[in-house]
Amino acid sequence: MNARVTAEIELQVDTEADVVLSIAAASGWPTRERLVVTGSAGDVAATEHEDHHGGRLHRAHLPVGSVRIFYEAETAAPTAPAPTDDLDSVRYLRPSRYVPFDALTTIPDIDATSDREVVARVPKWVFENLSYVSGSSGPADTAADTLTRGEGVCRDYAHVTIALLRAAGVPARLVSVYAPGLEPMDFHAVVEAFVDGRWEVVDATRLAPRTHYVRIATGRDAADTAFLTTLSGAVSLSSVEVSAVATEPFVTDDHTGTVLLK
């Protein structure tokens, strides 16, 4: 689907910092784009690295002071699915930092007899049993924490969905996306489940139509897809503003059918 997306991030850098940004649309999506990192002394260079799913990371060394990061793109869905390999069906069955499903003391009974039923019923269970509450979770919270608390935001919904899918033997991974129609607007976290030989996107929040999502990054959980990772130095986040607008007729989504994210 075609969309116009932007992200503007304001940082305060207390000591020189090495950071990685994951805000650019994945390889094959942008038809036009611009990324500008600006410090007090002018523009800062950002080096691009591409991962094996087509996610594009930008690494930059930030000077002390205020830093503004601005990204804009016009996007169109690629003709081919995101790159994958034979190990993904193993990689995304394993426990991970925010999805320690092997440590869950209680796993809900989803009452499914096939992978197809699991993929249909898990996000429905999460939607019906969690409450979406902005600010209710912290950056270190895992799927286990969210299940105990019973509330969270999109990353928490995604982590719980992934945990229950993996526990049922279905490979699942987290995808960060731009999501036209999302309210409130922000970076959004959804899930891809491997069923019938392909990766299908599910979103237990049901806050935006999956048909308009724009892929940013793909990984085991939020540790692999965070929009900003500080490798060294001291950085604090002042503000984040995200926009995503569909540039073609809007398609509604009841979140029951099959949707593939390129």
Automatic annotation (TrEMBL):
The protein's matches in InterPro entries, at most eight in alphabetical order, are given as:
Papain-like_cys_pep_sf, Transglutaminase-like
Q: Where is the Transglutaminase-like domain?
A: 146-206
Q: Which Pfam families match?
A: Transglut_core
What is the superkingdom listed in this entry's lineage? Bacteria
- Record-given protein name: Transglutaminase-like putative cysteine protease
Say which species the protein is native to. Answer: Microbacterium trichothecenolyticum
